[in-house]
Write a structure and sequence with these properties.
Number of helices: 13
CATH class of the largest domain: Alpha Beta
Number of domains: 2
Shape: globular
CATH architecture of the largest domain: 3-Layer(aba) Sandwich
Largest sheet: 10 strands, mixed
Helix content: 40-55%
Structural class: alpha/beta
Order of helices and strands: HHHHHHHHEHEHEHEHEEEHEEE
Radius of gyration: 20 Å
CATH superfamily of the largest domain: Vaccinia Virus protein VP39
Length: 297
């Protein structure tokens, strides 16, 4: 066990300095010695994907699932890379595992990818809200380490953050931006919540949902009469009227499907803004930043 931990630490050090060849060698050695070590498969698969070696990454994920059949991350990534039937959303186990492990280096990793979603959501919210309003009651869904809350804290009376990974909430707590942090799946939280919010944000949360109907329906009742829901999704390059699970494990949605899901939830959609959310393998990841409000009764 100690040798495996040492080798994983060595692999991370090689990854930090972009010595991908050496990192790959070390990770393959871990897998050979300890076939049940999920972290090695996950790191190696991401390395191969980063180098555009998609078929090799898919093979590693299948090998991982054979070795650990009940691993939620392996299950999801095999679905993402197989081109076969896709789940309607990522499982709670996948989200908690991936983001729990990523939490300590999450902000630094996103900075390297030029992550823009929190800024874009703030700008979109400012265009959708009454600019004179302050003292807002804000709900930050899938809050992660708190990158959105930093933007909105000056406008807030109260900010509630909800996330499934306790490790992410530990990072968010150190920012000091939240009045309350809750460890729970967002639709489960929404179903039991009796509070109403002037603003609900979700930065890159719904890229882990394919079917948006349940999530949107759960969120709609939480908006105050003048409240706004502002969120981002990754955009399908061609509008097929639906959603697709991509090989990196996130879902992309078409603009028409997004409008349909909001309308079915009783929400009136604003005009979505097309923007680059981040980079992936050196290429821009295009997304939609959208706002919505409750339909007038």
């Amino acid at each position: 066990m100690t040798q495996t931990a040492d080798l994983l630490r060595e692999a991370r050090e090689h990854l930090l300095v972009a010595d991908l060849g050496r990192a790959e060698t070390v990770l393959r050695r871990v897998i050979a010695q300890d076939p049940g070590e999920g972290r090695a498969y996950e790191m190696l698969g991401k390395l191969l994907y980063r180098e555009s070696r998609s078929e090799e990454a898919a093979s590693i994920y299948r090998e991982w699932l054979r070795a650990v059949p009940d691993d939620p991350v392996a299950t999801h990534l095999v679905s993402a890379t197989s081109g076969e039937s896709h789940p309607p959303r990522a499982s709670n186990g996948f989200i908690a595992s991936v983001f729990g492990r990523a939490a300590p280096e999450f902000d630094a990793g996103l900075a390297k990818l030029g992550y823009q979603a929190p800024r874009l959501i703030f700008e979109h919210a400012m265009s959708a809200l009454d600019p004179t309003r302050v003292g807002l009651n804000i709900l930050d869904l899938g809050c992660g380490t708190g990158l959105c809350a930093e933007w909105f804290r000056p406008l807030a009376r109260r900010i509630v953050g909800v996330d499934l990974a306790p490790e992410m909430l530990e990072q968010a707590r150190t920012r000091g931006c939240y009045d309350e942090l809750i460890c729970e799946e967002i639709t489960t939280y929404a179903a039991r919540c009796t509070e109403r919010f002037d603003l609900i944000t979700a930065a890159d949360v719904f890229c882990y949902f394919g079917d948006l109907s349940t999530g949107m329906a759960a969120i709609a009742p939480l908006l105050s009469p003048e409240g706004r829901f502002v969120f981002s999704v990754e955009e399908l390059p061609t509008d097929t009227g639906g959603y697709v699970l991509l090989e990196h494990g996130r879902y992309a949605h078409s603009a028409s499907y997004l409008s349909q899901a909001l309308a079915q939830a009783g929400l009136v959609s604003g005009v979505p803004r097309r923007a680059v959310l981040r980079s992936e393998r050196g290429a821009p990841v295009h997304g939609l930043v959208s706002s919505a409000r409750r339909q007038a009764v």
